[in-house]
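Contributing: when you submit paired examples, paste them exactly as shown. First protein:
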Amino acid sequence: MSDAAWPVSEAERPRVAALIEELARHGLGVFRPHAHDPAGAIVPLPPGEVALERDRRVDFVAAAAAPARAVAVGWRWGSTGVEVCALCCTPDDEAPPI
């Protein structure tokens, strides 16, 4: 899927903008769950994978391989409802490097 499949204007649609405004009241925002293909193009984040930030670096890993102490920072709607799609580790996490 190319970058053009997700036009920035989607976030500017009145209904989506209203949802973003409501989320902001709760200290939340919106992001596009994504990964990159071998050529570097943006593609949808595959089911079962998460974006994992550790030491200010983002890797894409199987959700089951993420450190237990990682903090959920992103969610999306999946086949079973709300699912975590982005995690972040704090500097004191004892997880081994990827």
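Second protein:
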Amino acid sequence: MKVVPFPKTIGKEKLTDFLMSFSKGTVSSFIELFDEGNENANEDKVKWVLLKTDENGEHTEQIIQGLYEDFLEFEEEE
């Protein structure tokens, strides 16, 4: 039995497309988590948000939201 290297079986272009789609899905899930917070907050009793910090690392109380909008714009630029 001859073993064919994986990239040759599906082709470099299809492999690249798959990896790009997989990466975008993973990043999108993280961004949704950052934007929405803990979806089980009521059950877990853990609530959190992503806050901006100043140059000294202190919280500014400014909540960072809308990251998905920037991600969608990034996708369009490709």
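If you have annotations for the second protein, write them as plain sentences, like these:
Helices lie at 6-10, 12-36, 41-44, 67-77.
The first helix runs from residue 6 to 10.
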